[in-house]
Specification:
The complex is a heterodimer of chains A (219) and B (316). Chain A is mainly alpha-helical. Chain A has one domain (4-212). In chain A, 76% of the residues lie in helices and 0% in strands. In chain A, helix 1 runs antiparallel to helix 2 (30-55), helix 3 packs parallel to helix 7 and helix 4 (98-116) packs antiparallel against helix 5 (130-147). The termini of chain A are far apart. The radius of gyration of chain B is 19 Å and the shape is globular. Helices cover 71% and strands 0% of the residues of chain B. Chain B has 316 residues and is mainly alpha-helical. Chain B has helices spanning 2-33, 43-53, 64-83, 99-119, 123-154, 159-168, 176-193, 212-215, 221-246, 257-284, 293-314. Chain B has one domain (2-314). The chains are: A mainly alpha (219), B mainly alpha (316). The A-B interface holds A 4-5, 8-9, 11-12, 14-16, 18-19, 22-23, 26, 98-99, 102-103, 105-106, 109-110, 113-114, 117, 120, 128-129, 132-133 and B 171-173, 176-178, 180-181, 184, 294-296, 298-299, 301-303, 305-306, 309-310, 313-314.
């Protein structure tokens, strides 16, 4: 079992991830959203490395390093390139405005805590909070995808969901089998690249990256 | 008894002495990051001395509130400061009030400042007061909730008990996740309450943006000096609150000379670190539009609420 100190450190890292989630929800500038995602991924890599250190699972270090490369460097750079081509720098109109979005996210976190509370004493979870926080991050990411209209921020929402899943998997299972993690990384990278290309196409076709244009039929 | 008096006097002297220095430090950090030389960190002391020597000019349309407000603001802020542990975890005056009293002592100062802004009947003062009312009404719930999140961990609303218990613990802090939420909330609240950059800009007198400066526009001479000192003091009190409640490492738990010395030194380092952080933030972020202030303070409110939720759901 983990030392009290180690468990507290993992909790602290998970809480930092949740904190950046709220920053993303409140942030309107597209580039800043991407930066915050990179920061969140850096915290995630830190958490994974910490879990690897505390549980003595060496392949978790590799996962942490890959998180660092793929999610902190590659995906943000690709997204920044996409944003440079766009004619919008910030999201002025949202489906849900920021204060309401924050309240909804707060409710989602409460919901996630309620759902995970009966589970935590049953399983062999590493810490008290990280599984609950992971579920909360997944829900907030899903909500970001719904609340935002621009393709880039929707993609950031998707990546936040992935970060939440990764945190949950690491905290609940001491790291997934290595092959599974490799597969997931590859999926996320490809998804981010495809979504980047898709955003560019959207920009060319409609001169905007507002995905609500896609709901109307063209002649 | 004598020890308590000496400690309280030292406490008050330290708060009064270092508050202009912190303001000077923030300005210096900001200047250096903008590749300017900047004024000396001791400039705020010189400003205060200069203002205390000048003759005050008081508008004939003002009532007694205008002259009374600086004294109320100054003394309520100092009284609030005396409740926050600075270099020793048990403040002699801790019987006088808990964490809730602290929040409302600060609110009392804000209230009188708003009244004073309205009192002279100038357009700017009224505008400043109405803006301050918006900000204050949004920060108060966030501040109360984050303070409750701390109080719940320690099982007490008395600040001295909270700090004393946390200081004696072996781990990093009692409960990191909710504490981080409450800390982030309290940091945003501090920026708002002290009138720092994303909310208000203390360096400008531009009528479109100013909040705190608009309220005190009619003040001059020693009244202005008192208000400036009080606002520096408020910043110091809030920073001390954050430094010692969330990271009370090194604070003296018993009144022994060596421990007190270390406690004071560690306190100064922690508070200076927070001041540098504020200076860096002021360089990195632009001031928010007034109607976007709700976004930021909404974040503070939700984070503070989550700090509480941790206790009621995951810890029950």
């Amino acid at each position: 079992m983990l030392s009290e100190m180690g468990s507290q450190l993992i909790d602290l890292c998970s809480a930092l991830l949740l904190l950046t989630c709220f920053a993303i929800v409140a942030q309107r500038r597209l580039a800043a959203c991407v930066d915050l995602f990179a920061l969140q991924s850096a915290f995630l890599a830190g958490t994974a490395a910490l879990v690897g250190f505390l549980t003595d699972n060496h392949h978790v270090y590799v996962t942490a390093a890959m998180t660092g490369v793929v999610k902190v460097i590659v995906i943000p750079v690709v997204l920044k390139k996409v944003i440079q081509r766009l004619n919008v720098k910030r999201e002025l109109v949202m489906n849900v405005n920021v204060p309401v979005a924050l309240l909804i996210c707060g409710t989602l976190v409460i919901l996630a805590f309620f759902i995970t509370r009966p589970i935590i004493p049953l399983g062999h979870v590493l810490t008290r909070d990280s599984l609950a926080i992971a579920l909360a991050i997944v829900l907030i990411g899903l909500f970001t995808m719904i609340a935002r209209q621009k393709a880039v921020t929707q993609l950031v929402g998707f990546l936040v969901v992935e970060n939440g899943l990764f945190l949950g998997a690491t905290a609940a299972t001491h790291g997934m089998p290595f092959v599974v993690e490799l597969g997931v990384f590859f999926d996320v990278l490809v998804a981010a690249l495809i979504a980047g290309i898709y955003t560019n196409r959207l920009q060319d076709a409609f001169d905007s990256v507002d995905t609500s244009h896609l709901t109307g039929l063209k002649e | 008894m004598i020890l308590a008096l000496v400690l309280t006097a030292a406490h008050a002297m330290i708060l009064l002495a270092i508050s202009p220095l912190l303001v000077g430090l923030i300005r210096k950090v900001k200047a250096r990051l903008q590749l300017r030389q900047g004024a000396s960190v001791f400039q705020p002391y010189a400003d205060l001395v200069k203002l205390f020597r000048k003759e005050p000019v008081i508008s004939t349309t003002t009532s007694w509130i205008f002259t009374a407000a600086p004294f109320v603001v100054f003394s309520s802020t100092l009284a609030a400061g005396l409740l926050v542990p600075v270099f020793i975890s048990h403040v002699p005056l801790s019987f006088a009030g808990n964490i809730i009293a602290l929040v409302y002592l600060l609110a009392l100062g804000t209230f009188f400042l708003m009244l004073a802004g309205l009192d002279a009947g100038s357009a700017f003062g009224g505008m400043g007061s109405s803006r301050e009312a918006i900000v204050a009404s949004l920060t108060e719930p966030a501040m109360m909730l984050s303070v409750f999140a701390i109080a719940l961990t320690a099982g007490s609303t008395n600040l001295s008990t909270v700090v004393h218990q946390t200081a004696l613990l072996q781990g990093i802090v009692t409960d990191p996740a909710p504490h981080l939420m409450a800390f982030a909330a309290l940091f945003i609240v501090t920026l708002a309450e002290a009138g720092r950059v994303p909310i208000d800009n203390p360096a400008t007198h531009l009528e479109l943006t100013m909040i705190h400066e608009a309220m005190i526009l009619e003040y001059s001479g020693r009244y202005l000096a008192l208000i400036e000192w009080a606002s520096a003091l408020k910043l110091t009190v809030l920073l001390s609150l954050m430094a010692n409640v969330f990271a009370p490492w090194g604070i003296a738990t018993t009144p022994e000379p060596a421990g007190l010395g270390i406690g004071l030194l560690v306190y100064l380092v922690k508070v200076a670190g927070l001041a540098v952080a504020i200076g860096v933030i002021e360089c990195m972020f632009a001031k928010l539009r007034l109607f976007r202030v709700t976004d930021l303070l909404g974040v503070a409110f939700i984070l503070a609420l989550l700090g509480l939720v941790f206790f009621y759901i995951l810890r029950s």
